[in-house]
Design goal:
There is one protein chain. Strands 1-2 form a two-stranded antiparallel sheet. The protein is mainly α. It has a single domain, classed as ABC transporter involved in vitamin B12 uptake, BtuC, CATH 1.10.3470. It contains 12 helices and 2 strands. The termini are far apart. A hairpin with a 4-residue loop joins β1 and β2. α5 runs antiparallel to α8 and α9 packs across α10.
């Protein structure tokens, strides 16, 4: 029982990262209705930039550890805002009326650009951060097995929960949230009643990019390193998860992604790790095939 409890706690942390990414992805997809393959790359890119800037601050600027971490996180947010602005104005907006496959190809190209920028900035080397706040917090102790989470895991979970909670409340209560829902339902109708669709679209894309930056920075600080292959896998999982759960609510997408992270951690604890991603992707594909088509179901006859 203690071992199962440990896997559940591990899943809460992994699921929190998935939830934040799903929240940001749904925020963007809701107004765009196009697949964004650059989202996982942006997640990895922001994590890498946080690490590189932290290494620079420590080795060159001689900053203290808290200051260098804060600098790395701040720069990753700045890069995310810039990337979101460029994606919104130079990629998504011009291609909004084109075929979906055009957006897939364009965002794949953006992913490659981000990957190359990260590789050149790191000079094709891997930089690792030292373990930070890795003090174990004991939740249960059987005498022979202790159930723990580290302090940084608890901080990550709390920050992500607060971010998703605040974001959901803001979307539910604010004027922007009402405009976002209107654009998600019908952009043309929203424009006819005075909603500035362009501004809503732009803010949603940047908001999704900032969510990816936060997830990337937190993952980098916890794991010590993050690669673009990791970002690709995370991005594909979020793409499938949000497709299964629908795009009408970022909060629902986040909760579904958190449940997926929990299931993934339990699989890792009891079944062969090397088969985890294959079986989890197969599970998501099966859900996609079996679930009813909501858009067709709501379309008038």
């Amino acid at each position: 029982m203690h071992y199962l409890f440990q896997q559940v706690l591990n899943g809460v942390h992994t699921g929190a990262l998935y939830a934040l990414l799903a929240f940001g992805y749904t925020l963007t997809y809701g107004v765009f209705r196009r697949t964004n393959l650059a989202y996982g790359a942006l997640f990895a890119f922001c994590g890498q930039m946080a690490i590189l800037v932290a290494v620079f601050g420590w080795n060159v600027l001689w900053l203290t550890l808290p200051a260098t971490v804060a600098l790395g996180v701040a720069v990753s947010f700045a890069y995310a805002a810039l990337a979101g602005h460029i994606l919104s104005r130079a990629v998504f907006a011009p291609l909004a009326g084109s075929a979906p496959n055009t957006i897939v190809a364009a965002t794949l190209g953006v992913s490659l650009v981000l990957m190359e920028i990260g590789r050149l900035a790191a000079e094709t080397r891997d930089f690792w951060l030292p373990p930070m706040l890795a003090y174990p917090i004991v939740f249960a102790d059987s005498g022979t097995f202790r159930v723990t989470l580290t302090l940084i895991q608890l901080i990550n979970i709390a920050l992500i929960a607060a971010t998703i909670g605040f974001g959901s409340l803001y979307l539910a209560r604010s004027r922007f949230g009402r405009a976002w829902r209107a654009v998600c339902d019908d952009a043309r109708a929203a424009a006819m009643v005075g909603v500035n669709v362009s501004i809503v679209f732009h803010v949603a894309v940047i908001g999704g990019a900032l969510a990816a930056a936060l997830a990337g920075a937190l993952a980098a600080l916890y794991y010590g390193n993050i690669s673009f292959s990791t970002g690709l896998v995370f991005g594909l999982k979020i793409l499938f998860l949000t497709a299964v759960g629908g795009y009408d609510s970022p909060l629902k997408s986040a909760l579904g992604a958190a449940a997926f992270g929990l299931a993934e951690a339990i699989w890792s604890g009891y079944f062969p790790f090397e088969w985890r991603d294959a079986w989890m992707f197969a599970f998501l594909v099966a859900l996609l095939v079996l679930r009813p088509d909501r858009e067709l179901a709501h379309k008038p006859a």
